[in-house]
Amino acid sequence: MSNPILKQLGHQAYEPTIQRMVDLVSLELFEEEIWFLSHPPVYTLGTAASKEHILNPKNIEIIQTDRGGEVTYHGPGQLVIYFLIDVKKRNLGPRKLVEMLENYLLALLKEYKIDGSLICGSPGVYVNHAKIASIGLRIKKGRSYHGISLNTDMDLSPFYGINPCGYKGLQVTQLVDLNKDAKFPDVEKRAMALAKELFK
């Protein structure tokens, strides 16, 4: 199979972006794509999410989604990467795809001399027990959508309005606090370069 098309989409509203993904993976003639973007402030609930984990949303919109996982926050300065992949043709099960994405994130952190870690049963990537990246996917008719969010250079305070990923007191961190050179444009550039090798 050929490599997925990489698309740099800039700052995009959440709901129209999700609808575009749903429409794309529903096409009979489907071409794989990986999207790189950010969203305005929004809390999103996965299929396993409980609204009890939203503690103090203030004026941030809350949206129910069809991805896996619990509640999370998206906002400016967070790199979001969506993977529209034909997992059936690639013979990738959900667990294998999550493992690939976790390793991809660990490799991206290494670019900034940051050692990430994994926690069994809790998809995503951590640094010193603080979550730096979340993974939430949906696979429908053999095709994946949604993806990962990497806290890059953002305001982290909205995470304290929720129990991130359903865990009370879970700490979060971001790249720029661990390496001052990890600014959003550079991180996105490096993430795109690594993504070119991901599905070879």
Describe the structure.
With 200 residues, this protein is α+β, with helices and mostly antiparallel strands. It has one domain: 2-Layer Sandwich (BirA Bifunctional Protein, domain 2), CATH 3.30.930. It is 24% helix and 32% strand. The chain has helices at 14-25, 94-110, 175-178, 184-198, and strands at 5-11, 33-38, 42-45, 61-64, 71-74, 78-86, 117-119, 122-127, 130-140, 143-151. Strands 1-2-6-10-9-8-7 form a seven-stranded mixed β-sheet. A hairpin with a 2-residue loop joins β7 and β8. α2 (94-110) crosses α4. 34% of the residues are buried. The model has no long low-confidence stretch (mean pLDDT 95).
Termini distance? 8 Å
Number of helical stretches of at least 4 residues: 4
Average pLDDT score: 95
Helical amount: 10-25%
- The CATH architecture can be given as 2-Layer Sandwich
Overall domain count: 1
Topology (SSEs and partners):
Layout: E1 5-11, H1 14-25, E2 33-38, E3 42-45, E4 61-64, E5 71-74, E6 78-86, H2 94-110, E7 117-119, E8 122-127, E9 130-140, E10 143-151, H3 175-178, H4 184-198
Parallel strand pairs: 1-2, 3-4
Antiparallel strand pairs: 2-6, 3-5, 6-10, 7-8, 8-9, 9-10
Can you tag this structure with a few keywords?
single chain; 200 residues; alpha+beta; BirA Bifunctional Protein, domain 2; globular
Short description:
With 200 residues, the chain is of the alpha+beta class. Helices cover 24% and strands 32% of the residues.
